[in-house]
Amino acid sequence: HLGLGLDVTSAPQAKLLVKRLEAEGIAVSVLVHNAGVLLHEPSLDAARMTLETNLFGPIRITQALQPFLAAETRIVLVSSAMSALDGASETLRRRIDSARTTREVVVLADDYLDSFDRVEGRGAVLPDAYSMSKALLNALAVAWSLEFPGQVTVAVSPGWIRTRMGGASAPHSVRRGASRIVSACIAPVRSGGFYGDSSAVP
Length: 202
What we know:
Elements lengths: L10 H14 L3 E6 L10 H22 L3 E10 L11 H9 L3 H18 L9 H19 L4 E5 L17 H13 L7 E2 L7
Parallel strand pairs: 1-2, 2-3, 3-4
Helix pairs in contact: 1-2, 2-4, 2-5, 4-5
């Protein structure tokens, strides 16, 4: 076992992780991307930090760890029911649903931040950054299922959980949320699939 603190927004820390894995001779059979932030400040800086952590972080870490991933490695992206993007335009939904490569997902994220920059403070309506980051995370699962067909990539929502992020009024326990993530790591699942709050993880 290897214990190592990791800031997923930091490229130098990703490189340090790689060096530690090389030194220990560790291969990765399951990779769970659970790092995430929910920032309530409606600013461009907060939007950037949200996407850097929730979306670009998993991309950065997975790309760094590719040499250590076995052909059958399972990648679990912890998503959210908020990825449904209620109220988003049909055009945006179609663009997200049609993304089939990591590059296309990154372009969508960059376009979102550019739009946020243009409309900030003007009262225009865009999806909040947390919901957008999770919708793009689901799209990333689809992209990776195609780009890395030997591996299994799945997105799963743990549900609304009683944590500092979810709050005390959330209906589900940490144990329940963790069990859904563990199930996504070991149960038969469809690569590229998203298992939402109401979807049983096989």
